[in-house]
Amino acid sequence: MSLDVKMAWRNVWRNPRRSILTMLAIAFASMLLVFMLSWQFGSYATMINSSVMVHTGHLQVQAGEYQEKKEVHLVVPNPGAVNEILANTNGVVAYGSRANAFSLVSSATRTYGAMVIGIEPEKEAKISTLAGIIREGEYLSSADTNQALIGELLAGNLQVHLGDELVLLGQGRDGSIAATVVQVKGMFSSGQDEYDRSMVHIPLEFFQDVYSMNGSVHEMVIVAESLEAVPEIKKEISAKLADLQEHSNLVVLDWKQLMPGLIQAIKMDLVSGFIFYIILVVVVAFSIFNTFLMAILERTREFGIMMAIGTAPNRLTKILLLESAGMTLMGLILGVLLGSLVTWYFQIHGIVISGTADIMRQYGLPERMFPALSILSICVGAGVVFLITILAALYPALKVRRLRPVEAISST
């Protein structure tokens, strides 16, 4: 151990109470940052998984321009071939087909525009939360033909109840008029108003007959085993589709492309979160700044004597920075350790926010939320605290360079 390090270590403990309080402040900030960042990242993963399970899935296979245009003739012509690819792709947990067409939906008294969606009832129950958000009536079965599920808000707008009939009027894939009558079998509530006021679900085979789809679909919805597996699954499916000449116009879209608004919401939340974290770290930085500024004022005469006997100002600055780095590192180690233990505990047991169970259930979110401890949440929190505290200690350390030995020795 060099002499400078020994001197810095000794100086840290010259005033143990002040040093310990400073290290505890750093530890508290680090602990809070590790936990809060882990909570944010964990809640984002839960929010993303819950959102994709409402409707979009983690990935979708579509015709090239369907996502932008939503035109009924832009289809996956042979979903059976795509199903074979998905069945043999690692990381794919579930998949299913959907067909969509904007139509006029009429009750006895009112008419509204809505998206009519053809689904495979058994597969849909695995790729979305639709079966679990039925509030009245029953979920669809494969034996149903002219049965429909509608959102509670749409049902209220149309003034219909279970068992009432609805007339669907739209355009078929071939340009023909698509018209049929369906009976309301169930009503759902996802907690997303736009979705609940604009969606009607009917069996896929029935949809294909009414809208002249000739066995084609618009979306192949895929659920992955985890968010981390999505990029690799997307790459593998894209490569396999490229080998099928009849599917050369198909594209694979991930949840980021399917739900760009969710990414924007996460970015906004991250920004607001980091503003709070910066405020917290700045408060700690002022504590460090005050500690070292007081240390310099108290030791001005000592620094003057050291400079008078030949100690270079650069060496004094180095010693003070070593003191700062030592206290910061000890505080960081303690804070990261405590933060990791607290986060690990709640990562196993979860956190239930009292009184929010019903609200969370309405939005398809679990009652118990789990933080996600990661290298990123540890390194970001610890790195920010270390950087800010070192910068805060830099001014007091550099202040020594401007001392004049005679004036410093004569100071009291």
Give a quick precis of the structure.
The protein folds into two domains: 3-51 and 262-410, no CATH class; 65-248, no CATH class. It is built from 16 helices and twelve strands. The protein has helices at 3-12, 16-56, 66-69, 79-87, 121-127, 152-158, 193-196, 204-210, 230-242, 255-258, 260-298, 300-308, 313-349, 357-362, 375-399, 405-410; strands at 59-63, 92-106, 111-119, 134-137, 147-151, 165-171, 177-188, 199-203, 219-224, 250-254, 351-352, 368-369.
What does this structure look like?
The protein has 412 residues and is an alpha+beta fold. It folds into two domains: 3-51 and 262-410, no CATH class; 65-248, no CATH class. It contains 16 helices and twelve strands. It has helices at 3-12, 16-56, 66-69, 79-87, 121-127, 152-158, 193-196, 204-210, 230-242, 255-258, 260-298, 300-308, 313-349, 357-362, 375-399, 405-410; strands at residues 59-63, 92-106, 111-119, 134-137, 147-151, 165-171, 177-188, 199-203, 219-224, 250-254, 351-352, 368-369. The strands form two sheets. It has a six-stranded mixed barrel with strand order 2-3-8-5-7-6, surrounded by four helices. A two-stranded antiparallel ribbon has the order 11-12. Strand 2 (92-106) and strand 3 form a beta hairpin. Helix 11 (260-298) packs parallel to helix 15. The chain is elongated and about 100 Å long. The model has no long low-confidence stretch (mean pLDDT 84).
